[in-house]
Each structure stands twice: as structure tokens, then as C-alpha cells.
Design a protein that fits this description.
Order of helices and strands: EEEEEEEEEE
Low-confidence stretches: none
Largest sheet: 10 strands, mixed
Number of strands: 10
Oligomer: single chain
Length: 118
């Protein structure tokens, strides 16, 4: 089963480690490819992943990933926990619970984000 991911932002400035939610990456996980039915992901463990346009893994992080019952997720980067990349990448969210592993993918670019590196 595939779940669908929609990011709330499409640009993120790297090396901003404030405690403000303004700089977290966030999005919502849906059951359907029309992005209308949010999925309760609160019972899962999440891994935030970044892949390039060839599908190769660039970054993976389980720390500071918050998963909520309303389908929303937040990723807060701390110093040393952020990717050091520039360009447009695809976000994947891997959700795991005993005996189950689901990968959330996007549709129509809903999982693409441009990382700015200053």
C-alpha cells in the first residue's frame, strides 16, 4: 500500500536551526492520490528521506520527526541533523510499525522541495 505526501513548503533555507516552527519542514500524508483523505500516522515511527531525480537516497533522518493523528508531520532540524544539499529533491516519508512498512510518495510534484544552501 502506498500513501501520498504533500509538502507544505517547496523551498527551505538550510542552516536555519531556530526553535521556531517557521523553519520546520511539514506536510500531510493522505490515503488517496487526490490528497483528500488524511491518514492517521500517529502510531508509526517516521523516517524523513530525501532522494534525487534518479531515486538515489541523499539523506535519511529519524530524529525530530513528529507524526500526528490528523496526517500531518513535522521535521525539525538541529545543528548537524540537516542535509547539506542544493537543488530540487523529492521527499519520502517512511512509516514503520511492527510488521508494516509504508512509503509515502507524492503526486504532481507535491513531494518536491528546493533546498537553498547559503
Amino acid at each position: 500500500m502506498v500513501l501520498y505526501l504533500k509538502m507544505d513548503q517547496n523551498v527551505w533555507g538550510q542552516r536555519d536551526f531556530t526553535d521556531s516552527a517557521t523553519y520546520d519542514l511539514s506536510g500531510t500524508v493522505y490515503d488517496d492520490n487526490r490528497l483528500t483523505t488524511p491518514r492517521d500516522i500517529s502510531g508509526f515511527t517516521g523516517t524523513f528521506r530525501i532522494v534525487d531525480n534518479r531515486g538515489e537516497l541523499i539523506f535519511s533522518n529519524q530524529q525530530n520527526v513528529t507524526l500526528n493523528a490528523d496526517g500531518t508531520f513535522f521535521v525539525r532540524f538541529g545543528e548537524g541533523l540537516a542535509p547539506v544539499v542544493t537543488g530540487t529533491y523529492v521527499v519520502r516519508l517512511r512509516l514503520e510499525v511492527a510488521g508494516t512498512r509504508l512509503t509515502c510518495v507524492g503526486v504532481n510534484g507535491s513531494d518536491q522541495i528546493y533546498f537553498e544552501h547559503d
